[in-house]
Amino acid sequence: MQPFENEIKRKLRELQDKAKTHHRASKRIREYGNARIFPIGIGYHAVDYSREPREAERFKESANICLHGCPECISIGRKCHLGSFFEKYGISKLVLDELLNSLIREATLSNPSPSQILTALNKHEFVVLKGSCNEQQNCQELVNNLNTQVLELIGQKVNEGHVKFAGHWVNMDFVSGELDYYYMLKVI
Amino acid sequence: MVHVTEENISLVDVDLLVSECIRANRRDSAFAYLVSPFISDFRIPATLIKFASNVINVSDVERISDLIGLLVHYEGKVYVVARSPLDLEQTTIARSFIKKQARILSQLHQRGCEIRFNPRLHAKATVTSQGAVSGSFNLTESGRFFNLEEGHFFPNSQGEPKKRYEKTLAWAKGLFENHSRPLTESDITIVR
User: Fold this and answer.
1) A126-133 and A90-91 strand pairing
2) Which residue of A has its CA nearest to B151?
């Protein structure tokens, strides 16, 4: 067993113990969900602690989780600008990826028609086009198609704004080996 | 084809250059023809340059020269056709404006862009492998944000826009290769 695996198990036990002793904090963390795990984790000012000041501290401790001991862990905001205390915040890249996936889930489309893209842009003011491939030739074709869809929308008027190319990233599924290509468009 | 005005020209411009950086980073052929009689460096609004990516890094880009420099950094080719500051000295255009033009051209040259001049240039266009935008707008802060401008964006996609794109690309290539002269030291000495 690797040392970081011990640390994950230790953290898991700690969370299970906390869930028994701090029912309310545990319940509220589940209610907040993935999408708001970051504000929970950064301290007192991020959540409503008016009823129980200690609760925010428990949130912070519980949400400061590294799921898999990834070497790409990063530190964010070592010092909170609203208080004098130091906040050590280690967050896993995997958690950040999950957070992003959670935030974009509803607006992510695979093989959409132009009208579906425009509907999503009208509804969410952004859309993420996703395509998956596993061979070089397929990938080139996929990237060309996604790129063409993006190009045809750049600068177009939607609602009171214009469509902007706002992001492009690539992920790989470690199990299947498939590459996922993402292109994000936003109305600004 | 997208109608372009002062409301969306800078957005289209930035998106074309960012897309080109992505291509260059993939080692696909990437280039940009920047055709504009007048050129100056200007700040790109933060909303236009925000770009989420694990492929390219645009977080350090603040000005248009940074974005053009980034494309060169990713080994994209950048070709600029403009009016020479040397020629502009013979006109009534303010010396401070000519100095700005000489400064940005000198910077772009140092970053690795190929600069050429045409004394009769009036046309304006940005042409990359992804699309072409042409119209009334100079590559200056006024041309991108303040003046009332009009033009069109032809993506290199399919159908009529692709045909118009190919025509514009052929025109830009011809202008650069056959109808413009290369930069010499005397063109930008006004900056010193």
Assistant:
1) unpaired
2) A155
* Residue B81 parent element (H or E): strand B77-82
* ipTM for the whole complex: 0.89
Q: Where are the domains of chain A?
A: 3-94, 111-187
- Flag if B53 and A151 touch (Cβ within 8 Å): no
Residue with tokens 């468009």: A185
pLDDT at B144 over 50: yes
Kindly report the pTM of this predicted structure. 0.77
Phi/psi at B135 (5° precision): 170, -150
Point out the residue among B53, B153, B158 whose CB comes nearest to the CB of A168. B53
**Least confident window among A25-29, A104-108, B91-95, B96-100:** A25-29
Chain A residue at shortest CA distance from B128: A151
- Cβ contact B70:B58 at 8 Å: yes
CA distance B7 to chain A (A): 9
- Whether the Cβ atoms of residue B151 and residue B10 lie closer than 8 Å to each other: no
Q: Which residues of A touch B51 (CB under 8 A)?
A: 165-168
Amino acid at position B171, single letter: W
Residue A25 pLDDT exceeds 70: yes
Q: Domain A111-187 classified CATH 3.30.200? A: yes
- Is A65 an interface residue toward B (CB < 8 Å)? no
Of A151, A154, A166, the CB nearest to B52: A166
Decide if domain B2-191 falls under CATH 3.30.870.10: yes
Name the phi and psi angles at A152, rounded to 5. Answer: -70, -15
Residues β-bridged to residue B4: B151
Which structure tokens are listed for A113? Answer: 């028609």
